Amino acid sequence: MSEIQIGGFRRLKGRIPVQGSKNGVLPMMAASILSDETTVITNVPAIQDVFCMMGILKFMGCGCTLRGGELTICPAELARTDLPETFVRQMRSSIVLLGAVLAREGRASTAYPGGCSIGKRPIDFHLQALRALGAEIREDGCFIRARAEHLAGAEIHFPYPSVGATENALLAAVLAEGETVICGAAREPEIEELCAFLNGMGADVRGGGTEMITVFGRKRLRGCRFRVSGDRIVAGTYLMAAMAGRGEVLLEGVKPGHLKEVIRVLKQAGAGFSLGEDAVAVRMEGPLLPVSVQTGPYPEFPTDLQSPLMGLLCCADGCSRIRETVFEGRYETAEEFKKLGARIQVREGEAVVCGRPSLSGGRVRARDLRGGAALVVAGLAAAGKTEIYDCFHIERGYEDICRDLRLAGADIRWRRQEAKEKER
Ligand code: UD1
After folding, report:
1. Is the dihedral angle over the CA atoms 99, 100, 105, 109 positive or is it negative?
2. Which of 96, 112, 326 to mutate for ligand 1's pocket (most ligand atoms within 8 Å of CB)?
3. Considering 48, 277, 336, 354, which has the largest number of Cβ atoms within 10 A of its Cβ?
């Protein structure tokens, strides 16, 4: 229902606090139901995906409140073991609840999860992991029903380091009897943090952040208090926005170590960085240079920043090459950049972006969460006014992208549909 309006290029300068991590907090919310005690998570962003996960937890009978970034979850009793279809279809990552509910209640059912339309997103590895732990799973049309009298530790081998499947395996294994070894686990910082969170609940998980994670199952877990890290993808988006605005911006509340590959690529594109313990400063003075990038599982370049990078490179001095290897549908936003005058060709799984000195403004559609944020990056470098519609996608993951970028002097604001209707 909401639109974003960007007035055009302005040199950016300022400090921006980075919100807590979306992909970090969502699996922790699911994990909190593994205990019947209260859990408090802090630095939680007020974003639609968090509200959606809260909606699911409430539907299942948990108390759930978010105030000033502090999320309290009281899972004393679970009234249901079926995940509500309307919420689940909105957000794919709700699938991590399957492992958690199954581990706690011995049964769980869900509709196939939804989420962004960024290519095929199967869940075969998730189901394979739960089956390895002893679950009986029936797929019945659009529904999945899982049952397990008893979950037992096992060796799980992932053919690809899926983030969600690693999370699901972890959430079921912490309450399974005996030892589980997850081989080929995803190494994203969010996985490492989930392992620390689970250990805070009394679990025994070792090797989080490496490709082999060992879990020694426990009979019971307790509640805990945990602060989620800054969002590395939001931070990466703002670094690129700062570069598009040829500016100097300090991001506070994010670990530079989570952004190593992103910073390496952005340095190649001409940016200068200084790194603190919990802060990253970027400065863009010279020309924006073309780069060649391939996305991949962490620690490679994140697929979630592929579109924002493409938005930035539309104005580079030459031709860049981007190869998306994780979600094939993520080139769709290229069509929107073209409406702003970008020169992009997608062929055989690779996008070639030939920069021009400036983009023109225009009216474009946020097709998915990161694609929407990428249009903001492009709009900040455009010569005229840019309007982005269908911004509900952006609100799934960014608390308030306009508020944040205005802190660095950007000419950007929300234009709510209701305000527009009043004008008529
Ligand atoms: C998570 C992130 C998302 C990010 C992605 C990759 C959350 C909430 N979302 O999504 O922002 O873009 O990691 O870093 O944390 N695959 C299968 N079978 C499966 C599972 C995955 O083939 O059972 C494939 C997918 O189609 C995709 C690849 O594995 O090609 C990576 O997917 P995965 O790591 O599972 O991504 P998500 O956990 O969905």
Report:
1. negative
2. 326
3. 336
